[in-house]
Amino acid sequence: MIPWQAYLDVALTLSVVLALAPVLGRYMARVYTDRPTLLDGLLGPVDRFLFRLLGVSRREEMGWKEYAANLLLLNAIALVAVFLLLVTQAGLPLNALGAPNMSWDLASHTASSFVTNTNYQHYVPEQQLSLFSALFGLQTLMYVSPATGLCVFVAFSRGFQRRDGTVGNFYVDFVRTLTRIFLPLVILGTLGFLLAGVPETLAQSVTAYSPLAGAQVIPLGPVASWNAIMLLGTNGGGYFNANLAQPLANPTAATLLLGVVLMLLIPLATPFAFGYLIRRPGEAYPLVVSAIAIFLLALGIFLYFSLNNPFLPPTISQAQGFLSGAEARFSLPESALFEVSSIYSNTGASVMAIGALTPWAQTSLLFGMFLQASPGGDGTGFGMLLIYVILAVFVGGLMVGRTPEYLGKKVGRDQVKWSAAALLSHPFLILIPVALAVVLGLGFAPGTLNPATFTSILYEFTSESANNGSGIGGIADTTVFYNVAGALVMLVGRYLPILAMLAIGGSLSREGPQPVGPGTLRTESLTFTIYLILFLIVIAGLLFLPVLVLGPLSQLG
Question: Between 504 and 331, where is the model more confident?
Fold first, then answer.
């Protein structure tokens, strides 16, 4: 039997996150409205120095197109810089283990992966990544990408409050996100991992001697600080190839559960920040409850179908659950909580072998990536949730004959057009490359295509389109096709929804408020919350149920 303490760990961890989320949400709202915080005295000079360095006036406001152009420019510069770093790393310092230059296609995939908050790894970090590339390349992008996501969130949110057509200043939002949110939280997270025994060093390896195995070179590095931004920023790319199944990166249940808190903290704090930004704190609760309800449903399904595999004969004991692919150092409920939190927050870090899980457990993880909004990644996950809300309000208004309105702003053609573009781009980005890979026989040997192989291909492109980064294995994906196609899928899957969110925010910011009347849909109600939950489930199901039948669900028969 699984000890009851394991379930208590799950409950306490989620309780800690839910207790901290409103506090952090209020703090984030103060940061983005330029109100005083306790860190002003320490970090104010840093902000002013960076503003002078960038030539930015913090009072200058941007329309959504200017905001988007500057966002894309910064991300493009970061992408190109890291690409050049990866293809030349063999001749750069801090390369004691002799990592070679990456090929152009692998470097393209890796740079695209980290700049888009995906962190999908087609390489072995211990062998193919130098410490210089890790610190000054990939770890830099691990700050840039989630900060970009939160900038999109706050610009989107301002559209519901403003009437002058502006959505803020990208560089001001970006700098304050880094200095006021990520910097202090990463320091706290790093200290937590250090106290739990995770290494933090610039030494790239240590040699251990064993009477049986002889000398063994063990890779090391700044793992604690890497873990902190990897999880807090919903990045997910591990310092080691085994990700957080590596004992040096995740030595105890305490580090596992700390990782859960870091992954869920900002995504669940964002709806509360939204409520304060629009000066309607009560509007946060339907959004938070919807995200948590779907998350808990997925966790229940994942855990239920991981506790028992009905296809195993009764002679095989499953008293501790179906442990294939599970991390033996942790209980199944603790591992399940981490895995579901990672996928549903679009982090992608892993402590389990996803390819070894039961089909229903795999399906529950895929559904989280199909949805991308329960709670989703930093900033953009909540942006996707708002897109679902806009569509839900529009459909609800049509059903009852009311003019669609949300938070005092009319939902019209422009908002629905951009929302539909963001929503429908996801299945296109998944299904087209999956079809190409299957038809052309890419990544698997001739005659070996089966439901498990199809699921591996489906999971690969779903993870990349959702900017998730988790992998299932089972196919040869280190080829030019998978590197180039994956890079394109990640870039479009990241920046098309971002443009849609900014465009919606910009169009809303030009509208005047609509007066509340008897026909206004009450979005703070329990009825709307239930409607939104069902809307999220039904829309994701309609878009992806057929492909699930071809993949993991076909393995049930």
Answer: 504
**How many domains are there within the chain?**
1
The answer to whether 201 and 221 have CB atoms below 8 angstroms apart is yes
**Rg of the chain over CA atoms, in angstroms?**
23
The answer to whether the pTM exceeds 0.70 is: yes
Task: Determine the Cα angle at 136 with ends 132 and 142, to 5°.
Answer: 125
Provide the 8-state DSSP code for 357: S
Residues 6+ apart with CB under 8 A from 202: 94, 131, 221, 222
Distance CA 16, CA 25 (A): 14
Residue ranges of E strands in 348-416: 405-406, 409-410
Q: DSSP string spanning 45-98?
A: HHHHHHHHHHT--TT--EEHHHHHHHHHHHHHHHHHHHHHHHHTGGGSSS-TT-
Range in 280-294, 451-465, 517-531 with the lowest mean pLDDT = 517-531
**Parent domain of 536:** 4-556
Residue that has been written with the tokens 């949730």 in this structure: 385
CA–CA separation, 231 and 266 (whole Å): 10
For residue 88, is pLDDT > 90?
yes
